[in-house]
Amino acid sequence: MDLRLPKLGEGAESGTVVSLHVKEGDTVTKGQTLLELENEKAVAPIPSTVAGTVAKLRVKEGDTVSVGQVIATINESDGPAAPEVPAAPKKLAPARAAEPEPAPEEEEPVEDESQEVSDAAVAAAPSIRKIARELGISLGKIRGSERGGRIVMADLRAYIQRLQKLTAGRAAPSAPPPQRIDFSKWGEVTKKPLSPLRKTIGRRMIESWNAIPHVTQFDEADITGLMELRKKHGAAYEGKGAKLTLTPLVIKAVIAALKKHPVFNASIDEAADELVFKEYYHIGVAVDTEHGLFVPVIRNADRKSLFELSKEVNELAEKARDRKLGLEEMQGGTLTISNQGGIGGGHFTPIVNRPEVAILGLGRGVMKAVVKEKKIETRLLMPVCVSYDHRVIDGGSAARFVVDLIQAIENFNEEDVRL
Amino acid sequence: MDPIKTEVVVVGAGPGGYAAAFYAADYGKKVILIEQDKRLGGVCLNRGCIPSKALLHATKLVVEARESAHRGIMFGEPKVDLEKLRAWKEGILQKLAAGVAQIAKMRGVQVIHGRGYFEDSTTLRVETESGQQLIHYEKAIVAVGSKSALPKAFDLGNPRVMTSREALDIEEIPQELLVVGGGYIGMELGTVYAALGSRVVVVEALDSILTGADPDLVRPVMAYAKRAFKEVRVKTKVAKMATAGKQIKVVFDDGTQQKEELYDRVLVAVGRVPNCADLGLENTKVERDEKGFIKVNERQETNDPPILAIGDIAGGVLLAHKASKEARIAVEAMIGEASVFKDVVIPAVVFTDPEVAWCGLTEAEARAKGINVEVAKFPWGASGRALTFDRTDGLTKLVIDPETERVLGVGIVGHGAGELISEGVVAVEMGATVRDLAECVHPHPTLSETIMEAAEVFFGHATHTVVRKRTE
């Protein structure tokens, strides 16, 4: 049977083959990795959905493969043909080798709204239906804000504005034509194509930087006590297979601060002019890898013990380094932590991970002389940087958040650490 | 006569055709309206909606006068002067038809009386009294309507066998009248004749009269018909008809046995057929379905780009207000607007006694299609207004989507249901929820309150239901 590239995840329509794990004639088992595909978010292993012999490989390293495209032909070893490749999409887009720009995922919110609602079931006044028809807009894609899901003019307007924003946002990056500069005339150079991941990181940074008025609040947290706790309990954690690092400890403290300041756990719904407060705490942890930056998300971090958090942070970081993170593991974060402490940074100005509204940057703790009760002490001080979206968070709120966060770090409850 | 050129020609001046002509003229088009009758207005105005309602109104008085005795108001037996009744009715029709002609004139729509025949996709030949007139047009709107079906077996060439057209002329009041067909035309005209004094028998092949309406809405009409008519015979067919002197011999077949009866007149109301013969459509690329109705898309366009069709000839429900709506859509499509005939709520009204009206999704339709609905009913026995005129034989019901609480359909039986249903149309078209209806204040004491109270029934707190009776 022909194996087709399965659906990769929301918004991901294609990817580049980074490595082939099998060759023609190989016997494969069901679930065995055939190849690794890199797209703008991650490198994903593509498993075989059947067991058999690889009759023909239809792709080679470096190829761009679209969802639904045939990647290999497998002669099945036993049993009837597996009925269907997982979620093969309807349209078989041709390989777009020379087309490196996949659909940006910001399109999702608009398309997400198409909940299989036929126009017949749409509740809207005839006048609204007529306007929608004239504009060529399917009302089935719009969620009505009125009772019973009725679509009114305001809903239509918001939808149109969102569409406009999307197309505008898309056009913007390509607006100034990039100039080619011959760097080799000043000396020797090596050229390396930007990976899809690098391009995605770049695009997202630009979008976030352009969309959000950033302010960064600096402070320092005394982590002398926290480090003592870590030293005291670290061995027990190690014994149970988890490394107790600073990050899970800070996650705990951050959640305490977020609960006091829910706006830091919110997002702006720009289309609806609404602030969306989330009742969940999914903490993104920025992981630096040789391929680039990944931000896996720890779900419901508020409901997890420090041990569970430690384990998960370790696991996700490892997965990130191995490029094994699934797309869904990097979505839905409510606040991101970027801890450079392990490398050795001071204060810096992290960029908010949109659509989140704040990001916490941590630097390396340094012993400093501190005046405490008129006496000079040496304490371990960690740089704390909180960048926030000044549209929704005022300076005062940010200061209060940082004060509470440092409070939570400095007065960490040992009970939370004890196994 | 020299051929004329026009932007738009409309064939047929019924409620679809004249509306289309006027509307196109309003958009600045040069329009010619073709009508084979001397009078504009089509079946609706001349031989359908309007004359039947005039007669129903006039004859209702007879019934009301009779029913006033127990209120202490007595009249003698009514005397019916048929000639005067006819003349009065005729006066109304003339006034309306003259009005349509006047409006055509004011809008600069040229009216040509004669029969239209398509020579090709862009040429219409009109047979007028003074000769043939060729019209070259850019767009044609076919609105030639439908006529009563008269199956061959019933077509005796005897004027005692009538269709609605003849029945509305009321040549005489027959003693024994058979109405073949228990649809809305048969039931309405049966009501007229019964009030005038005929002994009416309605025969219907299906197992109920007024199919299409929910059974609970039909029940009060059936109850009334059983009192006013001699008999309503369902699941019975007319096997044969023959002239028998001054009467008509009718053979009934109820599936088990045959029965023979004599009637003074027979009204055949078994449906309507499209007026598609001798129209020259075969000279165009216009396609028709197996019943002869012109096939159109949701923009009223036929297979032949210059030709559009609206109203009865385009099939669907055969109602004047549907034709008028399609007229607007056809003209808007013609001038390039994005209009389509889609999800349009077409209310249905049967002017029986009591009236039945519904719009949107019916309960029966929901059940048949497996659509999950909740139904809220408010019986008129609890309506003070209905009590004031002794007509508590009414029911207002809402068909509701339980998930969104959206009103998907409204059904009403009772006095004035035809007027009341418009609120239902607005509710369904606007996507109103049952809460919306419950929260809109309705004036007291009126029958319109029953819509609000039906909505309250859905939430379990209607003011005038059993609860209040118990406390009083």
Residue share in helix of chain B? 25-40%
Shape of chain B: globular
Q: In CATH terms, what is the architecture of the largest domain in chain A?
A: 2-Layer Sandwich
Q: How many DSSP-defined strands of chain B?
A: 22
Rg measurement of chain B, Å: 24 Å
SS-derived structural category of chain B:
alpha/beta
- The CATH topology of the largest domain in chain A is what? Chloramphenicol Acetyltransferase
What name is given to the CATH topology of the largest domain in chain B?
Answer: FAD/NAD(P)-binding domain
What does this structure look like?
The complex is a heterodimer of chains A (419) and B (472). By secondary structure, chain A is of the alpha+beta class. Chain A has three domains: 2-76, OB fold (Dihydrolipoamide Acetyltransferase, E2P); 105-171, Dihydrolipoamide Transferase (Irregular); 214-417, Chloramphenicol acetyltransferase-like domain (Chloramphenicol Acetyltransferase, 2-Layer Sandwich). In chain A, 28% of the residues lie in helices and 23% in strands. Chain A has nine helices and 19 strands. Chain A has helices at 108-112, 126-135, 153-171, 196-211, 224-239, 246-260, 306-321, 395-410, 414-417; strands spanning 2-4, 14-20, 27-28, 33-38, 43-47, 52-57, 64-66, 70-76, 214-222, 266-269, 274-277, 283-285, 287-288, 293-294, 297-298, 335-339, 358-362, 366-372, 375-389. In chain A, strands 9, 12, 15, 16, 17, 18 and 19 form a seven-stranded mixed β-sheet that branches. A four-stranded antiparallel β-sheet of chain A has the order 1-8-6-3, with no helix packed on it. In chain A, strands 5-4-2-7 form a four-stranded antiparallel β-sheet, with no helix packed on it. In chain A, helix 6 crosses helix 8 (395-410). Chain A is globular. Mean pLDDT of chain A is 82; it is low at 79-119. Chain B has 472 residues and is of the alpha/beta class. Chain B folds into three domains: 4-147 and 273-334, FAD/NAD(P)-binding domain (3-Layer(bba) Sandwich), CATH 3.50.50.60; 152-270, 3-Layer(bba) Sandwich (FAD/NAD(P)-binding domain), CATH 3.50.50.60; 354-461, Enolase-like, domain 1 (2-Layer Sandwich). Chain B is built from 14 helices and 22 strands. Chain B has helices at residues 17-26, 42-47, 49-67, 82-106, 164-167, 184-196, 215-228, 320-334, 363-369, 384-388, 417-430, 434-439, 449-459, 466-471; strands at residues 4-11, 31-35, 110-113, 115-120, 123-128, 131-142, 146-148, 161-162, 176-180, 199-203, 231-233, 237-244, 247-253, 258-263, 265-268, 272-274, 307-309, 348-350, 355-360, 374-379, 395-400, 407-414. In chain B, the strands form five sheets. In chain B, strands 1, 2, 3, 4, 5, 6 and 17 form a seven-stranded mixed β-sheet that branches. In chain B, strand 21 (395-400) and strand 22 form a beta hairpin. In chain B, helix 1 (17-26) runs parallel beside helix 8 (320-334). The longest helix of chain B is centred in the first third of the chain and has 25 residues, at 82-106. The N and C termini of chain B lie far apart (80 Å). The relative contact order of chain B is 0.11. The interface between A and B is medium-sized, with 19 and 17 residues.
